[in-house]
Write a structure and sequence with these properties.
Length: about 90
């Protein structure tokens, strides 16, 4: 089993996603956060049930909560779920 989703693991995932996959973070906000008009987004935290983002819409920051389709078991499950969500959003 991989690491449980502790605040430290959440911080690590968020840092990686924001630095290396900002396009995916924006897709999460636009598609799953129901803010298609978002111009940018930052992933602030991830937990077993979903993720908290801040989207930029018309120059204003808007909090966005995206709920997962299942409760995450660990960091490996989070990794696979985030990848699957990007693939789904790109369809």
């Amino acid at each position: 089993m991989a690491d449980p989703l502790t605040p430290q693991i959440s911080d690590r995932i968020c840092k990686h996603m924001n630095e290396d996959h900002s396009d995916s973070v924006l897709l999460y906000a636009q598609t799953f956060g129901k803010t298609p008009e978002a111009e940018a987004a930052v992933l602030n935290s991830i937990d077993n049930e979903g993720m908290n983002l801040v989207a930029t819409v018309d120059g204003k920051e808007v909090p966005v909560r995206v709920t997962f389709d299942h409760s995450l078991q660990d960091s490996e499950d989070a990794h696979h779920t985030l990848i699957a969500m990007v693939k789904q959003a790109k369809k």
